[in-house]
Amino acid sequence: MNTPAYAIPDSQPLAMMTAGDLRALIAEEWSRHAERIKGSAQPEIKAEESRYIYGLKKMAEYLGMTEKTFNRNRKKGIFDGCIRQLGQQYRAKKEDLDAAYDRHIC
Prior knowledge:
- The chain is mainly alpha-helical.
- The chain has 2 domains: 42 residues; 60 residues, no CATH class.
- The protein contains 5 helices and 3 strands, in the order ααβααββα.
- Strands 1-3-2 form a 3-stranded antiparallel β-sheet.
């Protein structure tokens, strides 16, 4: 384990720490944290979001139909299995919507 560059003796009460001691400890921890996350790969959020369509209105727009027609088809069961409801939000994968639409049209 790394020994901190700025160490407060274990015998010193925490209430006796000065503002300078606290500032030095925070700066040291912050630099260690920055080094740790510097090498880690950041997740690609945009690529993941593009696989999904959120909201019934957006799904209808994606398929090129009105919201009323989309809801009518949804209630008929055409899109069963591809639309998920998470709380009050609806979500579907684009590829699942396309497959369900193609099965219905063809």
